[in-house]
Amino acid sequence: MPIRSSRGCSMPLKYPLPVLVAIGTLLALAACTQAPAPTATAETGICNPDAARRLVGRPRITDDEAKRLTGAGSVRQITPGQPVIQNYSNTRLTIETDPATGRITAASCG
User: Fold this and answer.
1) How many whole angstroms separate alpha carbon 8 and alpha carbon 3?
2) What distance in Å separates the CA atoms of residue 21 and residue 19, rounded to the nearest whole number?
Protein backbone atom coordinates (compact mmCIF):
# COMPACT_ATOMS: atom_id res chain seq x y z
CA MET A 1 0.00 0.00 0.00
CA PRO A 2 1.87 3.12 -1.14
CA ILE A 3 1.67 6.40 0.75
CA ARG A 4 1.88 9.69 -1.13
CA SER A 5 3.93 12.48 0.37
CA SER A 6 3.20 16.17 -0.10
CA ARG A 7 5.73 16.18 -2.95
CA GLY A 8 3.80 13.58 -4.90
CA CYS A 9 6.21 10.66 -4.57
CA SER A 10 5.04 7.38 -3.11
CA MET A 11 6.75 5.25 -0.52
CA PRO A 12 5.56 1.68 0.20
CA LEU A 13 4.92 0.67 3.81
CA LYS A 14 7.08 -2.21 4.93
CA TYR A 15 4.54 -3.22 7.60
CA PRO A 16 0.77 -2.61 7.54
CA LEU A 17 -0.45 0.11 9.88
CA PRO A 18 -2.42 -2.22 12.24
CA VAL A 19 0.75 -4.25 12.90
CA LEU A 20 2.70 -1.09 13.77
CA VAL A 21 -0.08 0.09 16.10
CA ALA A 22 -0.19 -3.32 17.83
CA ILE A 23 3.59 -3.34 18.35
CA GLY A 24 3.51 0.18 19.76
CA THR A 25 0.68 -0.71 22.13
CA LEU A 26 2.49 -3.82 23.39
CA LEU A 27 5.68 -1.85 24.01
CA ALA A 28 3.77 0.81 25.93
CA LEU A 29 2.00 -1.79 28.07
CA ALA A 30 5.23 -3.67 28.75
CA ALA A 31 6.80 -0.49 30.11
CA CYS A 32 3.93 -0.11 32.61
CA THR A 33 4.07 -3.56 34.19
CA GLN A 34 5.54 -4.08 37.64
CA ALA A 35 7.98 -6.77 38.62
CA PRO A 36 6.50 -9.39 40.94
CA ALA A 37 7.13 -8.85 44.63
CA PRO A 38 9.81 -11.12 46.09
CA THR A 39 8.49 -14.04 48.08
CA ALA A 40 9.87 -15.16 51.42
CA THR A 41 12.31 -17.96 50.71
CA ALA A 42 15.53 -19.11 52.30
CA GLU A 43 17.36 -16.51 50.19
CA THR A 44 15.02 -13.60 50.84
CA GLY A 45 13.59 -14.62 54.23
CA ILE A 46 12.87 -11.94 56.78
CA CYS A 47 14.75 -12.40 60.05
CA ASN A 48 12.56 -12.96 63.15
CA PRO A 49 13.93 -10.75 65.99
CA ASP A 50 12.31 -12.83 68.76
CA ALA A 51 13.87 -16.02 67.40
CA ALA A 52 17.22 -14.23 67.14
CA ARG A 53 17.12 -13.20 70.82
CA ARG A 54 16.44 -16.83 71.83
CA LEU A 55 19.83 -17.82 70.41
CA VAL A 56 21.74 -15.92 73.13
CA GLY A 57 23.43 -18.27 75.60
CA ARG A 58 23.42 -21.27 73.25
CA PRO A 59 26.57 -22.87 71.86
CA ARG A 60 27.70 -21.57 68.46
CA ILE A 61 25.45 -22.80 65.62
CA THR A 62 25.94 -23.18 61.90
CA ASP A 63 24.63 -20.64 59.40
CA ASP A 64 22.13 -23.16 58.05
CA GLU A 65 20.75 -23.86 61.51
CA ALA A 66 20.56 -20.13 62.27
CA LYS A 67 18.61 -19.55 59.05
CA ARG A 68 16.24 -22.38 59.88
CA LEU A 69 15.61 -21.12 63.44
CA THR A 70 15.17 -17.43 62.57
CA GLY A 71 13.95 -17.41 58.97
CA ALA A 72 16.86 -15.13 57.99
CA GLY A 73 18.12 -15.17 54.43
CA SER A 74 21.75 -14.56 55.39
CA VAL A 75 23.88 -14.93 58.51
CA ARG A 76 26.88 -12.93 59.69
CA GLN A 77 28.99 -14.61 62.39
CA ILE A 78 31.23 -12.21 64.32
CA THR A 79 33.26 -12.05 67.54
CA PRO A 80 32.82 -9.37 70.26
CA GLY A 81 34.31 -6.08 69.17
CA GLN A 82 34.74 -7.12 65.55
CA PRO A 83 34.06 -4.15 63.24
CA VAL A 84 31.19 -4.68 60.83
CA ILE A 85 29.43 -2.52 58.28
CA GLN A 86 26.31 -0.92 59.75
CA ASN A 87 23.99 -1.14 56.74
CA TYR A 88 20.53 -2.47 57.62
CA SER A 89 19.11 -5.60 56.01
CA ASN A 90 15.97 -7.16 57.48
CA THR A 91 16.97 -10.48 55.91
CA ARG A 92 20.30 -10.72 57.78
CA LEU A 93 20.99 -12.26 61.18
CA THR A 94 24.14 -11.19 63.01
CA ILE A 95 25.43 -13.65 65.61
CA GLU A 96 28.17 -12.60 68.04
CA THR A 97 29.98 -15.57 69.59
CA ASP A 98 32.57 -15.45 72.38
CA PRO A 99 35.64 -17.32 71.05
CA ALA A 100 36.69 -18.32 74.60
CA THR A 101 33.43 -20.05 75.54
CA GLY A 102 31.94 -20.79 72.13
CA ARG A 103 28.62 -19.35 73.34
CA ILE A 104 26.43 -16.83 71.53
CA THR A 105 26.63 -13.52 73.39
CA ALA A 106 24.35 -11.49 71.08
CA ALA A 107 22.10 -12.10 68.10
CA SER A 108 20.12 -9.54 66.18
CA CYS A 109 18.35 -8.98 62.90
CA GLY A 110 19.45 -6.27 60.56
Assistant:
1) 9
2) 5
Smallest CA-to-CA distance from 78 within 51, 60, 54 is with 60
16 Cβ contact partners less than 8 Å away, ≥ 6 residues apart: 1
Tell me the pLDDT tens digit for each residue of 80-93. 999 999 899 999 99
CA 60 to chain centre: 28
One-letter amino acid at 8 equals: G
Higher pLDDT among residues 90 and 11, named by residue: 90
Contacts of 69-75 with CB under 8 Å at 24 or more apart are 70/107, 70/109, 71/40, 71/45, 71/46, 71/47, 72/45, 72/46, 72/47, 72/48, 72/109, 73/41, 73/42, 73/43, 73/44, 73/45, 73/46, 73/47
CB 60 within 8 A of CB 103: yes
